[in-house]
Amino acid sequence: MTKAEKAAAIEGLKDKFSNVSYFYLTDASTLTVEQVNKFRGLCFEKGVEMKVVKNTLAQKALESFPEELNYDALYESLKGPTAILFTETANMPAKVLKEFRKESEKPILKAAYIESAVYIGDDQIDSLSKLKSKEELLGDVIALLQSPAKTVISSLQSGGQTISGLLKALEERAA
Predict the structure, then answer these.
(1) What InterPro entries does the record point to (predicted)?
(2) Interior CA angle at 35 toward 31 and 41, to 5°?
């Protein structure tokens, strides 16, 4: 790889890292070509982009970002073969990995970056797959906000029926 190609690759990675808040570092080194193609297809279906990278280029791209992003916690995971899974949904790569690993032992999760939080190790897949997406969290908040209003309305409706029943009983008693 020439210097110009390396510089272009680093710039491409910088662009990717600056446009996503979530990415996973994986090791898919022992997968066959057929398995890698199947995994890439599954990633594509779920909106996850897989990119095989050289560790030194990925680290150089990450080093160009401010320290508060906490990318330096990932440097230790950039050893051995690395494929990066870029995504817009925090839990989707973990779900894809879990689904694919029903048939295969790899890819192994080296690390995950979720909005400045770093998860290291393959044992993190279960907890990462249970993370809620932004859409799911918004749905939960809306449901919580609607819940008291629904309770008040149903209480008023049932209370109205109770009052009318009580009035009716009093009316019948008086007659």
Answers:
(1) Ribosomal_uL10, Ribosomal_uL10-like_sf, Ribosomal_uL10_bac, Ribosomal_uL10_bac_type
(2) 130
Instruction: Kindly tell me the sign of the dihedral angle through the C-alpha atoms of 59, 19, 25, 127.
Output: positive
Q: Which residue has the tokens 């779920």?
A: 46
All structural domains of the chain with their residue ranges: 3-131, 132-175
Q: Are strands 22-27 and 108-114 parallel, antiparallel or unpaired?
A: antiparallel
Taking the C-alpha atoms of residue 20 and residue 75, their distance in angstroms, rounded to an integer, is 18
CATH class of 3-131: alpha beta
pLDDT band at 67 (very low <50, low <70, confident <90, very high): confident
What mean pLDDT comes out for the span 32-56? Answer: 91
CB neighbour class for 126 (10 Å; exposed up to 12, middle 13-18, buried from 19): exposed
